[in-house]
Design goal:
Helix content: 25-40%
CATH architecture: Alpha-Beta Complex
Structural class: alpha/beta
Strand order of the largest sheet: 1-2-6-3-4-5
Strand content: 15-25%
Order of helices and strands: EEHEHEHEHEEEH
Largest sheet: 6 strands, mixed
CATH superfamily: Mur ligase, C-terminal domain
CATH class: Alpha Beta
Oligomer: single chain
CATH topology: Protein-Tyrosine Phosphatase, Chain A
Number of domains: 1
Length: 159
Amino acid sequence: MEIVDHNGPFTVIVDYAHTPDAIAVVLASVRTATSGRIISVVGAGGDRDKDKRPLMGSAAAQHSDLTIVTTDNPRSERPEDIAADVSRHALAQNAAEVEIVVDRREAIQRAVSSARPGDIVLILGKGHETGQDIGTEILPFVDQDVAIDALRSLGWLPI
């Protein structure tokens, strides 16, 4: 779990939680740290256990006020299909707002721009990873850097 340092009135955390249990534990833990909202960004890896995807969405929606379903490492699968699998159970929770933003950069930007004073933005799934597996390529992608860019664009970091 890494807190992204900035000047805003909310907290941004990047975490490697990428299983249903890990997502539930991290979000439940964070819930005790705020009276504000929890905004989670969650996705599932492609070419991996498809049965876990709905459980990941369910865990995120159960413990978040806003769940943004996005891409993680789609590998050879269509990101839209993965997001649909993850969001299916998230939407069934009826306890939270759920959005699908397939582009991970845009999803992180959306989460950060949605934050209000006291909220916690939790970007899940990639943690320490420095690339995103898309097709046969690993493209440079660091959640922390994307969060910093989003914070900077909103004036919460010096330029």
